[in-house]
Fold this sequence. Notes:
Blueprint: E1 4-10, H1 13-27, E2 32-38, H2 43-52, E3 59-60, H3 70-88, E4 92-96, H4 100-111, E5 115-119, H5 134-144, E6 147-150, H6 153-161, E7 168-170, H7 174-182, H8 192-195, E8 203-208, H9 217-232, E9 236-241, H10 246-256, E10 262-265, H11 270-279, E11 282-285, H12 288-296, E12 301-303, H13 311-316, E13 319-321, H14 326-338, H15 340-347, H16 358-369
Parallel strand pairs: 1-2, 1-4, 2-3, 4-5, 5-6, 6-7, 8-9, 8-11, 9-10, 11-12, 12-13
Helix pairs in contact: 1-2, 1-7, 1-16, 3-4, 4-5, 9-10, 9-14, 14-15
Amino acid sequence: MKPIRVMTIFGTRPEAIKMAPLVRELAGRDGIESLCCVTAQHRQMLDSVLEIFRLKPDYDLNIMEPNQTLSTITSRCLAGVEQVLGQARPDLVLVHGDTSTTFAGALAAFYSKVAVGHVEAGLRTYDKYSPFPEEMNRTLVGDIADLHFCPTVANRDNLAREGITKGVFITGNTVIDALKTTIVKDYHFSTDGLNWLDFAGKKVILVTCHRRENYGRPMENIMAALRQLAQTFPDAELVYPVHLSPVVQQAAHAGLDGLLNIHLIAPLSADEMHNLMGRCYMVMTDSGGLQEEAPALGKPVLVLRRETERPEAVAAGTVKLAGTEQEDIFRMAAELLECPEAYAAMAHAVNPYGDGFACRRIADAIEWHFGLRPEPPQAFRAQ
């Protein structure tokens, strides 16, 4: 029987981290021909992940350009993916999450009448401008997709409320699979300053902040809270890998330069970020991925946003919404630094997002959908 041709499409670092283990899983299946297409929406940060997971894309659109906008990213992705699909003629296209690449890749597949599988399906805030543009991207892809790979039961229930009940699988999140590759016990950082941090004697706080909906006053408030935290707690070390966005760079340096215990560093590779997370005291972030990864490592997370589409860890107690007001962020972070009981309550290792076998379930579901196995995969159940 002719192998099923499955093309995985992604373009940003977070997508690559979560899709790389899936590409490898699919490549190991006898009944599947695995193809990989990258749009390189984020060129430099994407390439570091490809190197870590030793992936060589079959197609590279290399669309990134200076001062790119959502419209230019989407239009260049749409045209580029359409051409690739005409050449490769896959049976199924897999897209991930909620980026512009995700939306454009799914739309191009629809225009080409190619089936679409949506990895990390069913996340919702029900506010189309938060996160922006991610909420609308993933909602629209949900309407296009034929197969929906939901990390959790709550994600499945979100789709059901929208009338999407066919082709839905609960798989866990592939990012937990990725951690099995990247976390190393005696890891040596290539960013040398990180090797000199006193993880045992200091409270090292990992910070990320980059989302578009935080641009402007919210980001200014966040930077002010971080500065206040560093000044109030000299035994804390704040490590902030600053996103390459000029808006984020300007806000971070304007708000945080000049303090010895705030370290503004270049973006980290996936393995460096994961190993830093594994050694740090706590995480403060507006990133979606870190909300999933840190609970798996037993690290408390303060989310620097007004809402989250990942409520499972909030319910489990390892994640709290800190919002974007300086006073609230400082108060909640200070409590974790000062109160051992509050820290212990959040630091227990609860993993509502996966068990490290999401990619296996997705590949099994694809094989079942195309008649290559008799039964669908067992659904992931959080412990």
